[in-house]
Design goal:
Elements: H1 7-13, H2 54-67, E1 71-75, H3 78-87, E2 95-99, H4 104-114, E3 120-124, H5 129-135, E4 140-146, H6 159-168, E5 171-175, H7 180-183, E6 193-197, E7 211-215, H8 217-230, H9 236-246, H10 249-268, E8 273-277, H11 287-293, E9 300-305, H12 308-318, E10 323-324, E11 334-336, H13 348-353, E12 360-364, H14 370-381
Parallel strand pairs: 2-3, 2-4, 4-5, 5-6, 10-11
Antiparallel strand pairs: 1-7, 6-7, 8-9, 9-12, 11-12
């Protein structure tokens, strides 16, 4: 029986093979749009828009191993990955069943573009499992879930959705960006397709925009076909940067997990913070389930400040080490207000229903020393 390699080994080497003499230890960037083609050959044309540049191929193979999928593909953004993954399984007239706890940009894609394409979308609260089955129609073709959720870090039990998908021959798509394949692998829990914003933990250095889809060979072939037509291939240098970042994914996630936990525990002791959203805390509504399925709780922490929007503004202006910027999961700590970024298109009432009141800030704990992150938060609260 072939021995299974550890996550860190896979993230560095992929499927290890002995290198020839004088081979570069680090693969070069194949910064070429096209490649020479044999005359009279009917073989596949190598062209970077087709996703078969050596940098693109090597990166996808390594990521597929991390997720435990048959195949994977990288595209030019996380939103591109979300769009293509869904369009690979949906057609005009189909119905999509989606979690109501999702990234604001994904909701806009569903509401503004999918409806324009003739795809109907119904939103379900994940904490009401019976509602999932009641919402299935004859035209339902897919279910979409984000876990852990952005930005309140709810960890959703995929079991009910996976069973419904199996019973009805539906595709279960899961966005696992906030966990990374180090902390959670959706395919092990019944998902058919995994979507991730590779901009975040996979790359981890806040210097590239990319997305990825992992799943069966047939699904990835369809995503590839759509990518070639819609023109969303990842640039070879961007692919190289993501692979460079993935080499340290496992060790980075260990530090993100440690820092997230340290900051969350500290925040619970502060009177100026009325609620902390972190699945590694016993106070989190999904703590019991999260501890059973996650290998770590990440560096993402949601904080609700006493005093609402005004308190958040004063707090953010006093931060020195932590940078006020959108995005997340880089080596540096970042903080943002979802009401102005990820969920800005929602009304205040809609945000409150999702657990995102004014005064909510989303903290992405980087790789700094935990005591320094906490000291910056402390002085900003004082």
């Amino acid at each position: 029986m072939k021995r299974k390699l550890g996550h860190s080994t896979v993230a560095i080497h992929g499927a290890p093979a002995r290198q020839g003499d004088w081979s570069p230890v680090i693969p070069p960037v194949y910064q070429s749009s096209t490649f020479t083609n044999p005359v009279g050959s009917g073989e596949e044309v190598m062209y970077s828009r087709y996703g078969n540049n050596p940098n693109q191929v090597a990166l996808a193979a390594k990521y597929a191993l991390l997720e435990g999928s048959e195949a994977a593909i990288f595209v030019s953004s996380g939103m591109g990955a979300t769009a293509l993954a869904h369009l690979a399984v949906l057609r005009p007239g189909d119905h999509l069943l989606s979690s109501g706890w999702i990234y604001g940009g994904t909701r806009r894609l569903f509401d503004e573009e999918f409806t324009r394409l003739g795809i109907e979308v119904t939103y379900v609260n994940p904490d009401q499992p019976r509602q999932w089955r009641r919402s299935v129609r004859k035209s339902t073709r897919a279910i979409f879930v984000e876990t852990p959720t952005n930005p309140v870090m709810r960890v959703i039990d995929l079991t009910p959705m996976a069973q419904i998908a199996r019973d009805g021959g539906l595709a279960l798509l899961v966005d696992g960006t906030f966990a990374s394949p180090i902390n959670f692998r959706p395919l092990e829990h019944g998902a058919d397709i995994v979507i991730t914003s590779a901009t975040k933990y996979l790359n981890g250095h806040s210097d590239v925009i990319a997305g990825a889809v992992a799943g069966s060979t047939s699904i990835i072939e369809e995503v590839t076909r759509l990518m070639m037509l819609w023109g969303q291939s990842i640039d070879p240098h961007a692919a190289w940067l993501v692979e460079r970042g993935m080499r340290t994914l496992d060790v980075r996630m260990q530090r993100h997990n440690e820092n997230g936990m340290a900051v969350a525990r500290w925040a619970e002791s502060r009177d100026q913070i009325v609620r902390v959203h972190y699945p590694g805390l016993p106070s989190h509504p999904d703590y019991a389930y999260a501890t059973s399925v996650l290998d770590g709780f990440s560096g993402m922490v949601g904080l609700e400040l006493k005093g609402g929007a005004r308190a958040a503004e004063k707090f953010l202006k006093k931060l020195k080490l932590i940078t006020h910027a959108p995005s997340l999961a880089g080596v540096e700590s970042l903080i943002s207000e979802p009401r102005f970024t990820s969920h800005r298109r929602m009304t205040e009432e809609q945000r409150i229903r999702q657990g995102i009141p004014d005064g909510f800030v989303r903290l992405s704990c980087g790789l700094e020393n935990a005591e320094d992150i906490i000291a910056d938060l402390e002085q900003a609260l004082s």
